[in-house]
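Support request from a user on the community tier.

User writes: "When I paste my C-alpha coordinates into the form, the page sometimes reloads and wipes my input. The last time it worked, I copied everything first. Here is what I submitted, just in case something in the input itself triggers the reload:"
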Protein backbone atom coordinates (compact mmCIF):
# COMPACT_ATOMS: atom_id res chain seq x y z
CA UNK A 1 0.00 0.00 0.00
CA UNK A 2 1.37 3.44 -0.98
CA UNK A 3 2.15 6.16 1.56
CA UNK A 4 -0.38 8.38 -0.23
CA UNK A 5 -3.24 5.94 0.42
CA UNK A 6 -2.14 5.56 4.05
CA UNK A 7 -2.14 9.36 4.48
CA UNK A 8 -5.65 9.62 3.09
CA UNK A 9 -6.83 6.95 5.53
CA UNK A 10 -5.21 8.88 8.41
CA UNK A 11 -7.00 12.07 7.34
CA UNK A 12 -10.34 10.25 7.44
CA UNK A 13 -9.52 8.73 10.83
CA UNK A 14 -8.58 12.18 12.17
CA UNK A 15 -11.96 13.53 11.00
CA UNK A 16 -13.98 10.85 12.84
CA UNK A 17 -14.12 12.42 16.33
CA UNK A 18 -15.08 15.77 14.79
CA UNK A 19 -17.85 14.16 12.72
CA UNK A 20 -19.12 12.53 15.92
CA UNK A 21 -18.90 15.88 17.74
CA UNK A 22 -20.93 17.79 15.16
CA UNK A 23 -23.31 15.01 14.07
CA UNK A 24 -26.88 16.31 14.26
CA UNK A 25 -25.69 19.83 15.17
CA UNK A 26 -26.43 22.97 13.14
CA UNK A 27 -23.64 24.96 11.49
CA UNK A 28 -24.43 28.27 9.76
CA UNK A 29 -22.03 29.29 6.99
CA UNK A 30 -22.03 32.86 5.72
CA UNK A 31 -20.80 32.50 2.16
CA UNK A 32 -19.31 35.47 0.29
CA UNK A 33 -16.19 37.19 -0.97
CA UNK A 34 -13.72 35.52 -3.34
CA UNK A 35 -15.17 32.12 -2.49
CA UNK A 36 -18.25 33.17 -4.48
CA UNK A 37 -16.37 34.67 -7.43
CA UNK A 38 -13.56 32.15 -8.11
CA UNK A 39 -14.92 28.99 -9.75
CA UNK A 40 -12.27 26.80 -8.07
CA UNK A 41 -13.02 28.16 -4.58
CA UNK A 42 -16.76 28.04 -5.25
CA UNK A 43 -16.61 24.33 -6.05
CA UNK A 44 -14.40 23.66 -3.01
CA UNK A 45 -16.83 25.44 -0.65
CA UNK A 46 -19.84 23.67 -2.15
CA UNK A 47 -18.20 20.25 -1.94
CA UNK A 48 -17.32 20.98 1.73
CA UNK A 49 -20.96 21.85 2.46
CA UNK A 50 -22.22 18.70 0.73
CA UNK A 51 -19.76 16.49 2.61
CA UNK A 52 -20.76 17.98 5.97
CA UNK A 53 -24.42 17.43 5.07
CA UNK A 54 -23.81 13.81 4.05
CA UNK A 55 -22.08 12.96 7.36
CA UNK A 56 -25.08 14.23 9.32
CA UNK A 57 -24.21 17.85 10.08
CA UNK A 58 -27.11 20.28 9.56
CA UNK A 59 -25.63 22.99 7.33
CA UNK A 60 -27.39 26.29 6.62
CA UNK A 61 -25.91 28.63 4.00
CA UNK A 62 -26.50 32.39 4.18
CA UNK A 63 -25.17 34.34 1.22
CA UNK A 64 -24.52 37.88 0.11
CA UNK A 65 -23.89 39.01 -3.44
CA UNK A 66 -22.29 42.45 -3.44
CA UNK A 67 -20.22 42.06 -6.64
CA UNK A 68 -23.22 40.68 -8.56
CA UNK A 69 -25.40 43.59 -7.39
CA UNK A 70 -22.70 46.07 -8.46
CA UNK A 71 -22.46 44.41 -11.89
CA UNK A 72 -26.23 44.56 -12.41
CA UNK A 73 -26.37 48.22 -11.33
CA UNK A 74 -23.64 48.97 -13.91
CA UNK A 75 -25.67 47.24 -16.61
CA UNK A 76 -28.66 49.51 -15.94
CA UNK A 77 -26.39 52.56 -15.79
CA UNK A 78 -26.65 53.14 -12.04
CA UNK A 79 -23.62 53.89 -9.91
CA UNK A 80 -23.10 52.06 -6.61
CA UNK A 81 -22.99 54.39 -3.62
CA UNK A 82 -21.74 53.45 -0.16
CA UNK A 83 -22.30 55.22 3.17
CA UNK A 84 -20.17 54.09 6.15
CA UNK A 85 -19.34 50.92 4.22
CA UNK A 86 -23.01 50.02 3.60
CA UNK A 87 -24.57 50.09 0.14
CA UNK A 88 -26.95 53.04 -0.12
CA UNK A 89 -30.20 51.40 -1.22
CA UNK A 90 -32.86 53.55 -2.86
CA UNK A 91 -36.04 52.00 -4.30
CA UNK A 92 -34.49 51.24 -7.70
CA UNK A 93 -31.42 49.68 -6.07
CA UNK A 94 -33.65 47.65 -3.73
CA UNK A 95 -35.48 46.20 -6.75
CA UNK A 96 -32.14 45.08 -8.19
CA UNK A 97 -30.90 43.77 -4.82
CA UNK A 98 -34.04 41.66 -4.54
CA UNK A 99 -33.79 40.37 -8.12
CA UNK A 100 -30.09 39.52 -7.83
CA UNK A 101 -30.01 38.05 -4.30
CA UNK A 102 -33.36 36.23 -4.20
CA UNK A 103 -33.20 35.30 -7.88
CA UNK A 104 -29.94 34.85 -9.73
CA UNK A 105 -27.43 34.35 -6.91
CA UNK A 106 -29.67 32.19 -4.71
CA UNK A 107 -30.92 29.93 -7.49
CA UNK A 108 -27.49 29.54 -9.10
CA UNK A 109 -26.07 28.48 -5.74
CA UNK A 110 -28.92 26.02 -5.18
CA UNK A 111 -28.47 24.61 -8.68
CA UNK A 112 -24.72 24.14 -8.16
CA UNK A 113 -25.27 22.37 -4.84
CA UNK A 114 -27.82 20.05 -6.44
CA UNK A 115 -25.67 19.44 -9.52
CA UNK A 116 -22.72 18.41 -7.33
CA UNK A 117 -24.78 15.87 -5.39
CA UNK A 118 -26.33 17.94 -2.63
CA UNK A 119 -29.99 18.44 -1.82
CA UNK A 120 -30.52 22.18 -1.51
CA UNK A 121 -33.51 24.48 -1.42
CA UNK A 122 -33.47 28.27 -1.77
CA UNK A 123 -35.16 30.65 0.64
CA UNK A 124 -35.52 34.41 0.57
CA UNK A 125 -35.52 36.24 3.90
CA UNK A 126 -39.14 37.20 3.21
CA UNK A 127 -40.34 33.59 2.84
CA UNK A 128 -42.48 32.71 5.84
CA UNK A 129 -41.47 36.02 7.45
CA UNK A 130 -38.01 34.52 8.03
CA UNK A 131 -36.35 37.93 8.50
CA UNK A 132 -38.35 40.95 9.59
CA UNK A 133 -36.69 44.34 9.81
CA UNK A 134 -37.12 48.06 10.24
CA UNK A 135 -35.12 50.83 8.59
CA UNK A 136 -31.64 51.09 10.10
CA UNK A 137 -31.16 54.80 9.34
CA UNK A 138 -32.61 56.98 6.55
CA UNK A 139 -29.07 57.94 5.46
CA UNK A 140 -28.59 54.34 4.20
CA UNK A 141 -31.92 54.19 2.35
CA UNK A 142 -33.67 50.82 2.40
CA UNK A 143 -31.07 49.08 4.55
CA UNK A 144 -32.71 47.21 7.40
CA UNK A 145 -32.00 46.20 10.96
CA UNK A 146 -33.32 42.73 11.77
CA UNK A 147 -36.00 42.88 14.47
CA UNK A 148 -37.38 39.32 14.38
CA UNK A 149 -36.27 35.97 12.99
CA UNK A 150 -38.83 33.24 12.38
CA UNK A 151 -36.61 30.22 11.67
CA UNK A 152 -39.41 27.71 10.99
CA UNK A 153 -38.93 27.65 7.16
CA UNK A 154 -35.22 26.83 7.65
CA UNK A 155 -35.97 24.25 10.37
CA UNK A 156 -38.55 22.56 8.12
CA UNK A 157 -35.95 22.29 5.33
CA UNK A 158 -33.39 20.79 7.72
CA UNK A 159 -35.94 18.33 9.09
CA UNK A 160 -36.73 17.18 5.53
CA UNK A 161 -33.05 16.63 4.74
CA UNK A 162 -32.36 19.75 2.66
CA UNK A 163 -29.50 22.26 2.78
CA UNK A 164 -31.27 25.63 3.16
CA UNK A 165 -29.70 28.46 1.13
CA UNK A 166 -30.86 31.85 2.43
CA UNK A 167 -30.66 35.26 0.74
CA UNK A 168 -30.52 38.31 2.99
CA UNK A 169 -33.54 40.40 2.04
CA UNK A 170 -36.03 41.10 4.84
CA UNK A 171 -39.71 41.93 5.04
CA UNK A 172 -40.35 45.44 6.31
CA UNK A 173 -42.02 45.63 9.70
CA UNK A 174 -42.34 49.42 9.75
CA UNK A 175 -43.23 49.92 6.08
CA UNK A 176 -44.57 48.06 3.03
CA UNK A 177 -41.12 47.42 1.58
CA UNK A 178 -38.27 44.96 1.44
CA UNK A 179 -35.00 45.79 3.18
CA UNK A 180 -31.40 45.02 2.24
CA UNK A 181 -29.70 43.26 5.18
CA UNK A 182 -25.97 42.85 5.83
CA UNK A 183 -25.22 39.16 5.26
CA UNK A 184 -22.92 38.79 8.30
CA UNK A 185 -25.63 40.24 10.54
CA UNK A 186 -28.34 38.05 9.02
CA UNK A 187 -26.20 34.92 9.42
CA UNK A 188 -25.51 35.73 13.08
CA UNK A 189 -29.20 36.40 13.84
CA UNK A 190 -30.23 33.17 12.11
CA UNK A 191 -27.54 31.15 13.92
CA UNK A 192 -28.93 32.39 17.25
CA UNK A 193 -32.53 31.59 16.28
CA UNK A 194 -31.50 28.06 15.21
CA UNK A 195 -29.45 27.45 18.42
CA UNK A 196 -26.53 26.68 16.12
CA UNK A 197 -23.37 25.02 17.33
CA UNK A 198 -21.17 27.19 15.10
CA UNK A 199 -21.30 30.27 12.91
CA UNK A 200 -18.65 30.46 10.18
CA UNK A 201 -18.03 33.77 8.38
CA UNK A 202 -16.10 33.17 5.16
CA UNK A 203 -13.97 36.24 4.43
CA UNK A 204 -11.10 37.34 2.21
CA UNK A 205 -8.60 37.59 5.06
CA UNK A 206 -6.71 35.02 7.11
CA UNK A 207 -8.59 35.90 10.31
CA UNK A 208 -7.64 38.29 13.11
CA UNK A 209 -3.95 39.18 12.85
CA UNK A 210 -1.83 40.96 15.47
CA UNK A 211 0.09 42.44 12.52
CA UNK A 212 -2.08 42.83 9.38
CA UNK A 213 1.04 42.50 7.20
CA UNK A 214 2.13 39.20 8.76
CA UNK A 215 -0.18 36.19 8.44
CA UNK A 216 1.96 34.24 10.94
CA UNK A 217 0.52 36.52 13.67
CA UNK A 218 -2.93 34.93 13.37
CA UNK A 219 -4.90 34.84 16.62
CA UNK A 220 -6.40 31.30 16.53
CA UNK A 221 -8.67 31.74 19.58
CA UNK A 222 -10.08 34.99 21.00
CA UNK A 223 -12.21 34.91 24.17
CA UNK A 224 -14.94 37.57 24.10
CA UNK A 225 -13.35 39.24 27.13
CA UNK A 226 -10.31 40.16 24.98
CA UNK A 227 -12.28 41.85 22.18
CA UNK A 228 -12.52 45.38 23.69
CA UNK A 229 -8.75 45.43 24.25
CA UNK A 230 -8.05 44.28 20.68
CA UNK A 231 -10.30 47.06 19.35
CA UNK A 232 -8.56 49.62 21.58
CA UNK A 233 -5.13 48.43 20.35
CA UNK A 234 -6.26 48.71 16.71
CA UNK A 235 -5.86 44.97 16.05
CA UNK A 236 -9.59 44.78 15.29
CA UNK A 237 -10.28 47.76 13.02
CA UNK A 238 -12.06 48.93 9.90
CA UNK A 239 -14.36 46.40 8.22
CA UNK A 240 -13.39 43.72 10.73
CA UNK A 241 -15.19 45.55 13.57
CA UNK A 242 -18.75 44.81 12.35
CA UNK A 243 -17.78 41.18 11.59
CA UNK A 244 -16.43 40.71 15.11
CA UNK A 245 -19.50 42.47 16.55
CA UNK A 246 -21.70 39.88 14.78
CA UNK A 247 -19.59 37.07 16.23
CA UNK A 248 -19.71 38.53 19.74
CA UNK A 249 -23.48 38.98 19.61
CA UNK A 250 -23.96 35.41 18.34
CA UNK A 251 -21.83 33.85 21.10
CA UNK A 252 -23.42 35.98 23.81
CA UNK A 253 -26.84 34.88 22.52
CA UNK A 254 -26.12 31.16 22.69
CA UNK A 255 -24.07 30.10 19.65
CA UNK A 256 -21.25 27.97 21.04
CA UNK A 257 -18.49 29.52 18.93
CA UNK A 258 -17.96 31.60 15.81
CA UNK A 259 -15.15 31.42 13.29
CA UNK A 260 -13.75 34.08 10.96
CA UNK A 261 -12.35 31.91 8.18
CA UNK A 262 -10.31 32.59 5.04
CA UNK A 263 -12.50 31.59 2.11
CA UNK A 264 -9.52 31.93 -0.24
CA UNK A 265 -8.09 28.65 1.08
CA UNK A 266 -9.62 25.67 -0.76
CA UNK A 267 -11.60 23.40 1.60
CA UNK A 268 -11.05 25.79 4.52
CA UNK A 269 -14.38 24.72 6.05
CA UNK A 270 -13.36 21.04 6.22
CA UNK A 271 -9.89 21.90 7.52
CA UNK A 272 -11.40 24.07 10.27
CA UNK A 273 -14.20 21.73 11.34
CA UNK A 274 -12.90 18.21 10.73
CA UNK A 275 -9.17 18.35 11.43
CA UNK A 276 -6.74 19.21 14.22
CA UNK A 277 -5.49 22.18 12.13
CA UNK A 278 -7.69 25.15 12.98
CA UNK A 279 -6.89 27.81 10.36
CA UNK A 280 -9.19 30.72 11.24
CA UNK A 281 -9.92 32.83 14.31
CA UNK A 282 -12.43 31.32 16.73
CA UNK A 283 -14.34 33.60 19.07
CA UNK A 284 -15.86 31.99 22.15
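"...and here is what came back when it finally went through:"
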Amino acid sequence: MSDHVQQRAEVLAEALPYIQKYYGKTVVVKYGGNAMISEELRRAVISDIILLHLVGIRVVVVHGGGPEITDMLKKVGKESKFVDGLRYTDEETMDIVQQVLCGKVNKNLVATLNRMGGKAIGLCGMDGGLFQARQLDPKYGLVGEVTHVHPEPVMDCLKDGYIPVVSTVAQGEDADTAYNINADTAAAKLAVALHAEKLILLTDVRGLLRDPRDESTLLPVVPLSQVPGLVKDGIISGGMIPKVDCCVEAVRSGVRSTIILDGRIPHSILIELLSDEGIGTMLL
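Agent notes: The reload is a front-end session timeout and is unrelated to the input. The first strand starts at residue 26 and ends at 31. The chain has ten helices and 14 strands. Escalated to web team.
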